[in-house]
Write a structure and sequence with these properties.
Strands 1, 3, 4, 6 and 7 form a 5-stranded mixed beta sheet that branches. A two-stranded antiparallel ribbon has the order 2-5. It has a domain at about 90-195: TolA/TonB C-terminal domain (2-Layer Sandwich). By secondary structure, it is of the alpha+beta class. It has 3 helices and 7 strands, in the order H-E-E-H-E-E-H-E-E-E. The longest helix is centred in the N-terminal third of the chain and has 28 residues, at about 1-30.
Amino acid sequence: MIFKLRSVILSFFINVLIFSFLPILHHFFHKPASKIKPIRVDIISPRRAKPRAKKKNREKDIRKPLKSRNIIKPEFRRRITFELDPNALASEVDLIAPMVTYNLSEVDSFPKLEKYLEPDYPDIARSKGIEGVVVLKILIDSFGRVVAVKIKDNGGLYEFGIAAARAVKQWRFTPAKIMGTPVAVWCIQKVRFKLKK
């Protein structure tokens, strides 16, 4: 107990002694701000590179340059392949540019067939001796081209409808006219498949 008391008293006196010498040490080693020599610091700003002068084109570009921030980058997606069903209600007419079309009852002169291509007779129908009549609804544009084909009746065989539609697309007509102006018109066209004896 006495040993602990002595060690506490001794440590107290040592601390008092150290802290009493701190102001004296500070006076000898501390330099006032007036005696400190200033250090010169040069601030150098980096030079910006001068943009290269662009060669002036002889023809002035009318378009305004787009800012890179405003450009919208397109997203590329995987292509999907598909086939059109010729028996479906919607056909390639839905995919072409919209045009004003008429019915035969609305025109002054009907379209006339100029170029005819005979459809290929399907091998299945030939081997079985099947005949039929295909009914098509076709759109003839103002240039006399067949731009759309809808199969209304395939004549009892799916292959008849496909062969008839393929052939009719290559036919050419004199276009229908209203007051002398060629117009696009919907027509009903029958294609007969008959075996030659």
